[in-house]
Amino acid sequence: MGSSTFLLFSYTVLLSLATLTLSDDVYFEHNCNEIRGNYTANSTYQANLNSIVSQFSSLTEFNYGFFNLSAGVSPDNANVIALCRGDLNQSQCNSCLNYTATELERFCPSNKEATAWSELCLVRYANRDMYGMLENDPRTCAYNPANASNPEQFNQALSELLNDLSSKAADGGPLRKYAAGNATAGNLQTVYATVQCTPDLDEGNCTTCLTFAMNELRNCCYGRMGCRVLRPNCVLRFESNPFYNQIAVPLPSPPPPPSPSTSSFPTSIGEQH
Ligand SMILES: *[C@@H]1O[C@H](CO)[C@@H](O)[C@H](O)[C@H]1NC(C)=O
Ligand SMILES: *[C@@H]1O[C@H](CO)[C@@H](O)[C@H](O)[C@H]1NC(C)=O
Ligand SMILES: *[C@@H]1O[C@H](CO)[C@@H](O)[C@H](O)[C@H]1NC(C)=O
Ligand SMILES: *[C@@H]1O[C@H](CO)[C@@H](O)[C@H](O)[C@H]1NC(C)=O
Ligand SMILES: *[C@@H]1O[C@H](CO)[C@@H](O)[C@H](O)[C@H]1NC(C)=O
Ligand SMILES: *[C@@H]1O[C@H](CO)[C@@H](O)[C@H](O)[C@H]1NC(C)=O
Ligand SMILES: *[C@@H]1O[C@H](CO)[C@@H](O)[C@H](O)[C@H]1NC(C)=O
Ligand SMILES: *[C@@H]1O[C@H](CO)[C@@H](O)[C@H](O)[C@H]1NC(C)=O
User: Fold this and answer.
1) Residue 123 · residue 85 · CB < 8 Å
2) Which of 128, 129, 133, 211 best tests ligand 6's pocket when mutated (most atoms within 8 Å of CB)?
3) What start and end residues bound the annotated signal peptide (predicted)?
4) What is the total count of domains within the chain?
5) Both 65 and 100 in a single domain?
6) In this structure, is residue 20 part of a structural domain?
7) Does the C-beta of 55 come closer than 6 Å to ligand 5?
8) Atom 4 of ligand 2, residue of closest alpha carbon
9) Residue having the nearest C-alpha atom to atom 3 of ligand 2
10) Pairing state of beta strands 121-126 and 78-84?
11) For a designed S-S bond to 221, which of 49, 162, 227, 246 qualifies (C-beta 3.0 to 4.6 A apart)?
């Protein structure tokens, strides 16, 4: 197992404070990579990294909340992958990325490679290419210490919900791989969940990532009322309260399926749902 299993205590109390401003995100978790190199203050690597981080609060492209950015040239190039939860709009996404990246630099002031998850987004940076690669570490799991009163029914409903959401997210296409939904455990308890992969993963690697996350959830969160499994390429969360927005920014319609008949001019490109 990886070195990174942190538990977030007093989660129940903190849940009720979830409307605090981002500057106090109690869900923030981070990992500083101690192996893949260090940088010094005022180095070229730091300048390259800062040039990306300083853009986050004012990004004008939305990209459905996913960014693969880089600055500088080898050996001092900084690469950043950033992902906002699939129900965020651009201003929410920008402020989460700014906060999370700024905090990550503060917690890991000399590590070339580092990863952070806050409630609403994920930020990774490194001196190497990370795009499209499925990785196992760092990872962590944070749970709500309250237990379900009917754990077997609760977990049955949760497990079906997560399987369903995982296949929807993996099938989501190259812009966004996100799904959210709810299920009811024996009329007693509703469970709400979100799952998401960075959309640079292909469908198979997204499915693999979420399968690992579901297995981890069984180990760290069985019977709990809420849990977040955090991985470099995918995240999963469930709670007993509706914690996400029902409506996400719609994706453009998929292109019409290729027709074997004679080609024709395209119609209605980019129509929104
Ligand atoms: C980076 O610095 C940390 C101490 O801050 C040290 O433990 C680690 O060995 C260093 N890593 C490298 C690759 O030099
Ligand atoms: C880095 O630059 C700042 C501002 O120019 C300066 O105050 C600081 O002493 C420098 N730090 C190092 C380690 O050179
Ligand atoms: C992602 O960023 C890396 C640099 O980190 C770059 O080499 C790669 O071309 C980018 N991929 C895409 C699809 O933008
Ligand atoms: C983004 O969402 C927040 C919270 O729902 C809302 O207050 C804000 O007006 C939205 N911003 C835009 C530009 O839609
Ligand atoms: C970016 O986040 C940092 C850390 O929370 C904060 O101090 C700073 O004001 C934010 N910048 C903007 C432009 O919002
Ligand atoms: C899936 O992830 C592996 C491991 O990072 C990578 O080598 C492979 O290229 C990925 N698959 C695709 C189709 O990108
Ligand atoms: C929840 O269940 C676990 C394991 O059964 C137990 O250790 C823990 O104390 C329980 N938590 C609460 C808040 O009852
Ligand atoms: C639960 O999910 C159903 C769709 O499966 C949806 O119609 C309903 O609005 C959701 N309820 C809540 C409270 O989110």
Assistant:
1) no
2) 133
3) 1-23
4) 2
5) yes
6) no
7) no
8) 42
9) 42
10) antiparallel
11) 227
